[in-house]
Amino acid sequence: MKLRIPALVAALVFAYLLPYTLDSYAIHVVDVALIFALLAIGLGLVMGIAGQVNLAQVAFSGVGAYTTALLTTQAGLGFWTAAVLALLAAAAAGLVVGLPALRVQSHYLGIVTLGLALAFLNWITNTTLAGGADGVSAIPVPPLFGVDLSDEYLYYYLEVVVFAVAMGFGLFVVATPLGRRLRAMRDDPLAAGAVGAEIPYLRMVAFLLASLYGGLAGVLYAGLIRYVAPESFSVANMFLLLAMVIVGGRQSLWGCVVGAIGLSLIREYLSDFSTYAQLGYGVVVVLMVVFAPTGLAGVPARLMARRRREQARAVLQPFEPYHPIEDGVHGQGALEIRRLSMYFRGVKALHEVSFRVEPGEIHGVVGPNGSGKTTLFNVVSGLYKATAGEVLLDGRVISGARPYQLSHLGIARTFQNLRLFRDLTVRDNVLVALDRTRTWSIWRYGLWQFGVWQQDRGLKQEADRLLGRFGLSDYADALPPSLPYGIQRRIEIARAMAVSPRVLLLDEPAAGLNGDEVQQLARIVRSIRDSGVTVVVIEHNMGLVMSLCERVTVLASGQIIADGIPADVVANPAVIEAYLGGESMSAEPMTIPAEVQK
Amino acid sequence: MQVFLQTLVGGLSLGAIYALVAMGFSLVYRTMGLVNFAHGDVVMIGAYVASTFYLSVKLPFIPAMAIAIVVTGLVGVVIEFVLRPLENKDFDLMLIGTIGFGIVLQALAILIWGATGRAVKNPVQTGPIDILGARVRAYDLVVLAVTAVAMVLLVLFLQRTKRGVAMQAVAMDHEAATAVGIHVGRSNAMAFAIGAGLAALAGGLAGPLLYVAPTMGGSLGIKGFAAAILGGFGNMPGAIVGGLTIGILDSFSAGHFQGYSDLVTFLVFTVAIMIRPTGIFGERTVNRA
After folding, report:
1. Where are the alpha helices (DSSP H) in A321-475?
2. What does the pLDDT read at residue A461?
3. pLDDT at A328
4. FRET label pair with A467: which of A154, A171, A345, B166, CA 20 to 30 Å apart?
5. CATH 3.40.50.300 domain range(s) in chain A
6. Residue A586: its pLDDT value, please?
7. Half-sphere exposure for A181 (CA within 13 Å, toward CB)
8. CB A340 within 8 A of CB A386
9. Over 50: is that where the pLDDT of A592 sits?
10. Interfacial residues of A (vs B; Cβ cutoff 8 Å)
């Protein structure tokens, strides 16, 4: 913080003085580099922050530039009116290109967005409306507040102001609840959905943000060059932009900007030796990707990591129990499973399963590997849609809802194979879950940023309280993969409790824990129940199940074979048969579809 | 009817080229989980090598093609070696890393063969053949036949030979494959070489149909990739069906919408992928969860 203000002042002074040292050609180059930087921020947000492959970013700027050009030259609108409409047009394009992201991801999304960008290029190259390959020229740019924008030096200052605002907004988004949700979605969309992030809307928001930055860059481009043609928005330029973002470091907006400005200056400098420049640029990109996958922005962090190892060791503090609810009467959190079936192409993972979990109960679900326990959790938490039957929470049918809707209704879960957000700190992991607002509340990012900031501050205090309760304060700034397994398990429980659930589903919480840790786990689970939360736990550790659970349901081959108090259940011949005899013991380890297991 | 048939055969022969490109994509993807965006540029290298031996060295077309396949296959081995750290990695890195390699190949092509393209004369100098009243270029039929033979050979190789089966094993689980004594690195290099060889075949065959230029890989690569996705990524019959579909779509939309054919092709493709994300035959994923 101490360094930030002098650095900001220095940057402002530099930005102000820079034009005085440049000739008319150099200032043009800088103007173009700033436009690339704006585009790169947008691409960084959608790809680096939100994890959505977008090869239409340059096409978004094409939509912005062409809309400005056509509205000013053909419809006779003023430049600034046209600019606003162009931003809206780019946003609309963003939503259209974002639609496929609801269905496909990764390389599929890459080729679809690239295809749509090519379709746009194909259209503007052919339509007579947009002048075909010749493009549109003579775009009028009026003075702004008496500043003559046809002067590239003065245009530079306009760009710097726009860039500063856009960068500030981008950084604000990344650091506040929306950005955290986007990053959580990038790291693990399933877990993000399970803590209440509305994945489909967030994907659209990511494309919307990218297209707004693209549109802004397009408008500025049209104003700077005052001429637009299809080749400015070609696939080659898209790949150049992509290289800028990857070389700079896609997960850091500063990295994207540095990459954009750096590569555009280098490209300009080498333009006289174009073929060798192309060769060099290709080689540099390959080398960067192979040797520095986090880009330039990742280099300082790598150096820091080496130093951080020498710091004092963090300690896991004891868990501070929750306050038990008044008079011990649990009003809500009744879970009922009615004749639930889940078939995978004829494999009956669950068949007509029915049981009840009373409010305030700790209910165990046990059974041999492959008996359908995790499938049951996946159905209850909305990852799978049941083939038949229903799930009721406090008398209300909740089966068929999406995971994020269930999270908002009060269902929280942990995962058998730990699904923490890898690149988010422990505090951020908890913060994502603490944020209970819906996606529509992002209107505040446009109109009431102070409200966002205030909410964020409140959430952070709450997060620190929660981490303190779970004894995790020392690890608040660590990344989960760097922590021991037992601590990661505890973070998952803390994250699940952050959503203030009515029902908590724990999938093998004791797996991989040592004896001492299992004792602590039992204490934590009892305290969670005493605070008014119903707990359903899948567990193989029978000692823990016997001591912890009030009722136990036993599954074998997708069907219930026993249901009752632990002492009765272990004496049940069918249970002994399932556990000790029969073929289930030799059955293969439980496998669930890769998307859930990962 | 005549117009229809002629458009259809034209689309099929272009589609056969896309299918060969798509097979290369799919083979490399399913063996090592690498989405190789430089594949289109490997096609371009293949086209240049073939046309050089055919036009400049004046070899007959078939030996020229054979040399192109071998040379490009060797280039493939080099690419595999350089990009090995990216296999099974983050998709964003693969995307830009392989695109970067494609840019290198384009620059090399410009340095070796110059920036202007060249036309390749048709090696089949017989006149058009009459089929049901439609006049069909004989070369189109040659392209289709060669593609069919290449696919049969590839499927036989993958299913009937020891090396082919080993390659399938690596695709399913590279650790288990190592454990049973398969040299995964060598197997991957061979898969990449075969993929590059298929690319050379596609490029060599495309030479007389299109125009050989350093940038020809762009459109061929993107359409071939779209074909692989449409058919079901990693699936060999899917690559063929996807390629032919894209080719026919291209040829009919060029007939009906003239300049707007790319627009129509990609819009149809997008809608198709949204309806059926795993492609016609479903993705044969490299499942390493």
Report:
1. 373-380, 403-409, 426-434, 443-447, 449-469
2. 92
3. 64
4. A171
5. 326-597
6. 42
7. 27
8. yes
9. no
10. 47, 53, 99-100, 103-104, 106-108, 110-112, 114-116, 118-119, 121-123, 125-126, 235, 239, 242-243, 246, 250, 275-276, 278-279, 281-286, 289-290, 293, 594-595, 597-598
Architecture per CATH, domain A326-597, reads as: 3-Layer(aba) Sandwich (3.40)
Residues of chain A with CATH 1.10.3470: 14-304
| ipTM (interface predicted TM) | 0.85
Contacts of A280 (CB under 8 A, 6+ apart): A270
Share of chain B above pLDDT 70, in %: 95
Residue type, A489: R
| Mean pLDDT score, A9-18 | 84
**What average pLDDT does this structure show over A109-124?**
89
Distance CA A139, CA A150 (A): 11
Q: Which residue of B has its CA nearest to A102?
A: B274
Rounded Cα distance between A210 and A86, Å, is: 14
Distance, CA of A285 to CA of B96 (rounded, Å)? 7
Distance between CA atoms of residues A572 and A578, nearest Å = 10
Alpha carbons A345 and A334: distance in angstroms, whole number: 31
pTM above 0.95, yes or no: no
Domain ranges of chain B: 16-216
Q: Residue B287: pLDDT band by 50, 70, 90 thresholds?
A: very low
- Beta-sheet pairing, A551-556 with A227-228: unpaired
User: Is the dihedral angle over the CA atoms A101, A103, A109, A111 positive or is it negative?
Assistant: negative
CB–CB contact B270 A112 (8 Å):
yes
Q: Which of B175, B65, B172, B77 is nearest to B123 (CA)?
A: B65
Q: What would the pLDDT profile of A292-346 be if each residue is shown by its tens digit?
A: 777 777 777 767 766 555 455 777 888 888 887 776 677 788 889 888 888 887 7
The pair of three-digit structure tokens given for residue A115, joined into one six-digit string: 């295809």
Residues of chain B positioned with their CB less than 8 A from the CB of A104: 273-274, 277
Measured between beta carbons, the chain B residues lying within 8 angstroms of A126 are: 258-260, 263
- Considering the domain delimited by A14-304, tell me its CATH architecture: Orthogonal Bundle (1.10)
